[in-house]
Amino acid sequence: MSHIVVVGAGQAGAALVAKLRSEGFGGQITLIGEEHVPPYQRPPLSKAYLMGEMALERLYLRPESYYAENGIDLHLDETVNAIDRADKVVIAGGHQIKYDQLALTTGSVPRRLPGSIGGELRGVHVVRTLADVDAMAPEALAGRRVLIVGGGYIGLEAAAVCAKRGMQVTLIEMADRILQRVACPETSAYFRDLHRSHGVDIREGIGLARLTGEGQVTGAVLSDGAELPFDMVIVGIGISPATSLAEAAGLEIDNGIRVNALGQTSDPSIWSAGDCASFPFRGNRIRLESVQNAIDQAELVARNMMGAGEAYDPHPWFWSDQYDVKLQIAGLNTGYDRVVVRGAVPAVSHWYYAGDRLLAVDAMNDPRAYMVGKRLLEAGKSPAADVIADTETDLKTLLRA
User: Fold this and answer.
1) What pLDDT digit, counting tens, does each position of 101-116 carry?
2) Residues 319 and 326 sit within 8 Å (Cβ to Cβ)
3) Which of 78, 204, 207, 373 has the lowest CB atom count within 10 Å?
C-alpha cells in the first residue's frame, strides 16, 4: 500500500491530506506536526484569539477526530530531524517512517531580533504560533506600553489589537514608510492615518538601536537616539521559509524549497507547498505567504501526487483586518508604474497598473471593488484607468466588457 508522509501540520499540510482523501487516495497518510495541537488557523491568532473573542477549539481547521475518522495518522508534538532520500525514510523522534512520496509543508519562521541588541530579553515576542500568542496575552494589558518593531501587515495588525486592548502603542518602521515593501504610498497613507486616529505613535524611517533591561525588557533606544520606556515588545519584521530540513537533505533551495510547476522538488519523490515553497510564475520564481496559496498549492500538489500533472497558476489574494477596516488585495503589484484611486475614505480602492495593464487592487472597506478587481484579473481584463477612477462607473459592467 502506498504511503504518503506530510511534514508540517499547518494550513498547507492540513489542506494536502484532506485533498488526498477527498480525491480518493486509498493509501496510508501520515501528517507530522511540531506543535501539540492539531492544524489550526493562524490569522485569528493575533486578532480574535488574542482579544479573547475566539476559543482554542474554534481555531482548529477541522475537529481533531477528523484525522482518525479519515485514516490520517496525525503525529503531534513531533519533530522530523532528517530525511534519508536513499532509503525513503523520515527520522522523527528517534524512529523512522518509511514513505513512497513525501510532501514538505514546513511553512515559515518569524525573523527575530539578535540577542546582541536585546532580542532574547523576556517580554520580547513574535507572532507566529499558538504558543507565541499564549505567551504574549498575559502581558498585553490596558495601560501598558508596547513597542511594535516593523510596519508590515504583521506589525500593523499587532498594533491594532494592542490599541484595542487599551495599550500605549509605539510602532517603528526602518523604511521611509509603513508597508513600503508591499503597497503603494496611497495605501501606506491610508493605514498611517487609521492607526494614528486610534492613538498609535507611528515613527517611520526609524530603526531599533537596542532594547534595554536586565533579563526583562524595560525600554528601547531608537536609531534617532530617542530612549523610551516599554513593558513589552512585539517583533514583526517578516518571516523566512523553513528550509533547514530540505537543505540538509540536499534538496535545491532558491528563496525557499525550489519546486517545479507541479510542486515537485529536485527529488521527484518529494513535493512541497505553502510558505516554504518557491515556484515558477510568469517567467519569474516567487514564494507566496498567504492562506490562499497554502490551500491552493497544497491541494494541487495532492492531485499531482496522484498523477494529475497540473501546473500551478495562482490568482493571488490576501486580506488584513485592522480595527473596523478590512483590507482585501487581489493580484500582485510587482512592477506597477501608477496607481489609480477610486472612492474616498473610509471606502477606497487603489488599482495598480503597469502601462495599461491592471496588476492588482487594494480595497479598503470596499468589497465590491475587490470582487470586481479579482474577477477582472482572473479574466485577464484591464479596464481603462479613467473608467476605474470615475466613481459613476458601475464596476460590475466592466466584467461584461
Assistant:
1) 999 999 999 999 999 9
2) yes
3) 207
